[in-house]
């Protein structure tokens, strides 16, 4: 078993142990948030025919060549076509067909004029200005062309994408099965929020925050409850969890104290221990093992440390199991909005909130940065990556931030894709994270701006 490894080493060791899960088909009502297991090709043009975008009259533009306010053109209205019906007649010179929004454009017509721009009089309409051919006509395939790829394998199904698939006639879509993530809390001091709080006890926040993180990612959490600091009981509970889940996450009991029993429980199971401790703060005491081809990852019991290591270590694994292309957090160069006045003998991840001002992305440190300080995670949407051996940091310094997946609203999917393909390297000061992009503060309007 390796000890004290770099975060990047831990990520690669663990990612090599997981793979995309099986696929299945689900209804569109079940599809939101799921990950597509294959490319989806458009089955038809959208719209499937030339249609009117408004209520009006379909006619030939050449009939309006001489129209003006003093000499209006009169056309005979020969038919009315509601949406959902096909025209029975053809538009010819001197005629028009009344047409509703969404109705097919009649044969012979090359323009639609809206109701309010004409005068109606005994089955004729008067037009008072010249029209340009093609105006107010939505062409077949204008939105989606038959045969084009409308969604790629690994894409997350969003509400607009579900709408496009429905418009294409897809009742079912192929998706990757949701990973089942067992969450187990350890510790004699931990109790459920439903219980009365006694002296020396604390409520179990880790179970709820990590289960919520799984739901936000699109995974299925399996809360396994709380087990005391006893290696035999922990081993039994982990064994039970392995029978139900694709991956098992524990919190607490992974440090060097007399009651930190998770590493011993893994040995009791005869699990293959991969590593113990990652060179980072918070969350250094992470233990990882494999048993029956399934990963077991023990995280710190400190609430903030558990959430941060979950984001950096566990989330990439869940995303790979879900079939997503991007596993590791995206990074962005930032300017510090405020200072951090402690030295960092080891690599440190500071909780921050990103915002954009004058085309620059700033990172504002928020709240307490201690291992157990949970409240500062509420507004945290990024982590500032501070190199080991760094001294105090002052406002205005440049750095690099990792964008947390749980706060994806700061970064549109379009900006993520552009970032992946832009491949703009960070400075050599930050060799461990390779890619960032100007699109973060040029193209992406979802980053909070001051």
TrEMBL record:
Gene3D superfamilies: MoaB/Mog-like domain, MoeA, C-terminal, domain IV, Molybdopterin biosynthesis moea protein, domain 2, Molybdopterin biosynthesis moea protein, domain 3. It catalyses: adenylyl-molybdopterin + molybdate = Mo-molybdopterin + AMP + H(+). Its EC number is 2.10.1.1. Pfam families: MoCF_biosynth (PF00994), MoeA_C (PF03454), MoeA_N (PF03453). It comes from the Bacteria. Its cofactor is Mg(2+). GO terms for molecular function: molybdopterin molybdotransferase activity. Residues 182-320 form the MoaB/Mog domain. Pathway: Cofactor biosynthesis; molybdopterin biosynthesis. Keywords: Magnesium, Metal-binding, Molybdenum, Molybdenum cofactor biosynthesis, Transferase. It is an enzyme of class 2 (transferase). Belongs to the MoeA family. PANTHER family: GEPHYRIN, MOLYBDOPTERIN BIOSYNTHESIS PROTEIN. Catalyzes the insertion of molybdate into adenylated molybdopterin with the concomitant release of AMP. This is Molybdopterin molybdenumtransferase. It comes from Sporomusa silvacetica DSM 10669.
């Amino acid at each position: 078993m390796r000890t004290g490894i770099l975060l990047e080493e831990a990520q690669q060791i663990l990612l090599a142990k997981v793979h995309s899960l099986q696929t299945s088909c689900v209804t569109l009502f079940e599809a939101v948030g799921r990950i597509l297991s294959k490319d989806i090709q458009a089955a038809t043009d959208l719209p499937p025919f030339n249609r009117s975008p408004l209520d009006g009259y379909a006619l030939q533009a050449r009939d309006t060549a001489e129209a003006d306010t003093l000499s209006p053109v009169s056309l005979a209205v020969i038919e009315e076509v509601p949406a959902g019906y096909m025209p029975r007649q053809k538009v010819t010179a001197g005629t028009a067909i009344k047409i509703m929004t969404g109705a097919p454009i009649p044969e012979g017509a090359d323009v639609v004029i809206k109701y309010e721009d004409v005068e109606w009089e005994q089955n004729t309409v008067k037009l008072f200005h010249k029209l340009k051919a093609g105006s107010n006509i939505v062409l077949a395939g204008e939105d989606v062309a038959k045969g084009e790829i409308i969604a790629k394998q690994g894409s997350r199904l969003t509400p607009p994408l579900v709408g496009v698939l429905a418009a294409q006639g897809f009742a079912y879509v192929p998706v990757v099965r949701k990973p089942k993530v067992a969450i187990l809390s350890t510790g004699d001091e931990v109790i459920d929020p439903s219980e009365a709080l006694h002296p020396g006890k604390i409520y179990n926040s880790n179970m709820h925050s990590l289960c919520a993180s799984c739901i936000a990612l699109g995974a299925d959490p399996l809360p396994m409850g709380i087990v005391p600091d006893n290696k035999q009981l922990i081993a039994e509970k982990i064994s039970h969890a392995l029978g139900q889940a694709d991956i098992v996450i524990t919190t607490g009991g992974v440090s060097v104290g007399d009651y930190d029993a998770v590493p011993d429980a893994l040995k009791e199971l005869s699990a293959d221990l991969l590593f113990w401790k990652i060179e980072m703060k918070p969350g250094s005491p992470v233990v990882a093992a494999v048993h029956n081809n399934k990963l077991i990852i023990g995280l710190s019991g400190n609430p903030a440390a558990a959430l941060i290591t979950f984001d950096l270590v566990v989330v990439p694994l869940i995303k790979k199991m879900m079939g997503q292309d991007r596993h590791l957090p995206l990074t962005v160069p930032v300017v510090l909005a405020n200072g951090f006045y402690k030295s960092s003998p080891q690599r440190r991840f500071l909780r921050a909130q990103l915002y954009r001002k004058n085309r620059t992305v700033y990172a504002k440190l928020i709240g307490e940065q201690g291992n157990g300080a949970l409240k500062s995670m509420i507004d945290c949407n990024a982590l500032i990556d501070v190199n080991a051996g760094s001294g105090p940091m002052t406002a205005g310094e440049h750095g690099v931030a990792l964008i947390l997946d749980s706060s994806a609203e700061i970064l549109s999917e379009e900006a993520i894709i552009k970032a992946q393909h832009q491949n703009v390297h960070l400075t050599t000061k930050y060799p461990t994270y390779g890619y960032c992009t100007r699109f973060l503060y040029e193209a992406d309007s979802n980053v909070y701006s001051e």
